[in-house]
Amino acid sequence: MEHDAVQRVKADPNYQKLVKTRSRYGWTLAWAVMFVYYGFTALNAFNKPFMAAKIGDGVMSRGVPLGLLVIVFTVAITGIYVRRANREFDALTEAIHKNAEASAAAEAKKVAA
């Protein structure tokens, strides 16, 4: 019985769309984060004079605002994912739940009859 419910959910077009879309979107954002993080780390490792150069007449180097940019990027990309998840992915999940409940109720009627 449980196996049938799992198979019904996996066969649901909304489930297939959710898995495909969320996976592709998640990997795209993951690659973006890795590019920014590893880019910052590589810049630190391989171009120290650039990162250590002072900004203006002060004591702050270029590395400080770039590091802050990495943090802001992380917060922004998290917000972007959450916004899409709340709008699109949650709606698909709700549709999957409704379809699963409806098919379970239909199957229960068949068994009862």
Your description of this structure?
The chain contains four helices and no strands. It has helices spanning 2-11, 13-46, 48-52, 63-112. Helix 2 (13-46) runs antiparallel to helix 4 (63-112).
Indicate the topology.
Elements: H1 2-11, H2 13-46, H3 48-52, H4 63-112
* Overall strand count: 0
String of helices and strands: HHHH
The class by helix and strand makeup works out as: mainly alpha
Helicity, as a percent range: over 70%
Radius of gyration: 24 Å
- Give the CA-based shape: rod-shaped
- Please tell me the overall pLDDT: 92
Low-confidence stretches: none
How would a crystallographer describe the biggest sheet? none
DSSP strand content: under 5%
Q: What's the short story on this structure?
A:
This protein is mainly alpha-helical.
Give a quick set of tags describing it.
mainly alpha; 4 helices; 113 residues
